[in-house]
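User: Hi! Is it possible to get a structure for several chains at once, not just one? Here's what I have:
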Amino acid sequence: MTPVPAARGTQSSISPETRLKLYRTMQECRMLEKRAYDLFMQNLIKGTSHLALGQEAIAAGFGVAMRPEDYTFCTYRGHNHTLVRGVGMTEILGELMGNSSGLMRGKGGSMHLTSVKHNMLGSYAIIGAHLTIANGAAWSAQYRGTEQVAVCFFGDGTTNIGAFHEALNFAVIWKLPVVFVCENNLYMEYTSIHDVTAVERPAADRASAYGLEPVLIDGNDVDVVYRTAQRALDLARRGGGPSLIEAETYRHGGHSRADPGKYRPDEEVKEWLNKDPLPRYRTRLAQMGVSDSELQKIDDETKAKIDAATEVARNAPPPPLEIASTDVWANGGSAWRN
Amino acid sequence: MAQLTYRDAVAAGMAQEMRRDPSVVFLGEDVAAAGGVFKTTVGLLDEFGPKRVKDTPISEQAILGAAMGAAMTGLRPIAEIMFSDFFAVCWDIVVNQIAKARYMTDGQITMPLVIKSGNGGGARFGAQHSQSVENWAMAIPGLKVVAPAFPADVKGLMAAAIRDNDPVLFFEQKSLYATKGEVPDGEHIVELGKANVVREGSDVTIVALALMVPRALKAAEILQEQHGINATVVDLRSLVPLDTQTILREVAKTGRLVTVEENPRLCGWGAEISSIVAEELFWDLDGPIVRVTTPHIPLAAANNLEDAQLPNPERIVAGVRQLVD
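Assistant: Yes, the chains can be modeled jointly so their relative placement is included. Here is the combined structure:
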């Protein structure tokens, strides 16, 4: 099987405005994630956190291509996917810090960022589950006759759990408007995905088992991701059913806060740092005539935005204690007896 | 009033709600064209069509995930897990996802869904198709748990579960499917979380659920006729919410409590009720609390073995007489 590239990266039909938006979105993801890292180092974020540094092109490419009414489902590595749907930086950082400025006022934490009003329907921390849940949102859209599409992001490790296979079969037989996006960063947690997978391409090589076209793309080229996203979203909106996309990428850091990522060969890390989606896109934009000052302005604005959000988030009070026992039930309470 | 089987009352409750609310949809294995392996959903496909009544592959995680995603986005799905033993292959979706989504998101998500499932023993299906798992569900914050004993309650509680804005696990006792009872015609709703005193007595209060309710009633007859003991029987109907007011009131009247549960012994729901009564009503008790349960062993398939394992009227009588003599 030869996986087919879904789209070429440098198609001139992407407008200059869209390209700048893609750049800005990637830069916001990059800088916010770096800020999250800094706040960890200052011990202002507890628990764990799974950074997506290096994987920004996938979140940005899809985020820009999606309509506001489309649904996002992602994993615990989901800060970027939340940000690109328009969720505020203060709300994201506040949730990471577990205080009252947070998106869920500290009731969810880093691994569960959710913003229903942005149709960001959740970050899920049990591998595989959210593929089946994305199907449900897609089914609902299909039933209600809207043009909404559910987009579901997951890692390479997910392709070896049962729910992945259940969800794909289910989506195909019901012809659901759902796009499955495997962010293949080459490692499940600490183990190379190749060492534990029967096929070379963990998602693309499984596509034919479900009657789907194998789609393997360069997940570090935001133009390619954007084009691929447009195509898959359009197919789903037209009633053409689901897509499965494997986007190759690399996380710059370890799996989580506790992991320095030392199991990865230096040469490999170096090679992938050379394919960092941000400098790569910056170079492309420069070649297309975008001035350095224009890009610098985006960088400066982004930094100022994150600084301001950080200030608000870090100075917010802890969540009110009473919310520890609210919203177990739809009536707002937690009573299980009379 | 019509005489309906427990089985037909399931479909009656679902149909009642599907008629009044187009957002109610139903999915599961063999539930549409075949009407369910236990024939609890016969007629729904014909009345509501293939868009609302849907057959699925044997993919329990996919079924419950689809129900959850649909519930999060405006529908009121009912999902069937054919045998409740199969919750073991999709428990992640129930426990980690469905039960916690509202809490974790600070109330952003509402989860109006029902999972109906054939539960319990007595049908000689062996250890993997006979378990009573309502106590698994009861242990998870965020799930409502219902297990009716009579056809009228099947219809009324199913309707209430569908209208409820929280996830409800609806346990249908497989050995009760063929039993019959009066079911109100027209719209019928039984509020969740209300126990029902199905027999009033003065000497002992027997608290039971699902299949154990008719067995407790049979035991009460024997106790009356052969031993002169007059028992109250409380049908819990819901484990969550739990109607502790009715339990405490009825135990206070007799001073004695016997719980009858189909769960294996350890951490069965009777333990929780015993604990509540011991904490809150200790000084009104005239003797120790007695729990009649399935022993802490898997269920066997053979007639005599399974019969020896599940609580039956004779064992309930013995449990009561241990307390009242």
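Chain A touches chain B through 54 residues (CB under 8 Å). Chain A has one domain: 16-313.

User: Great, thank you!
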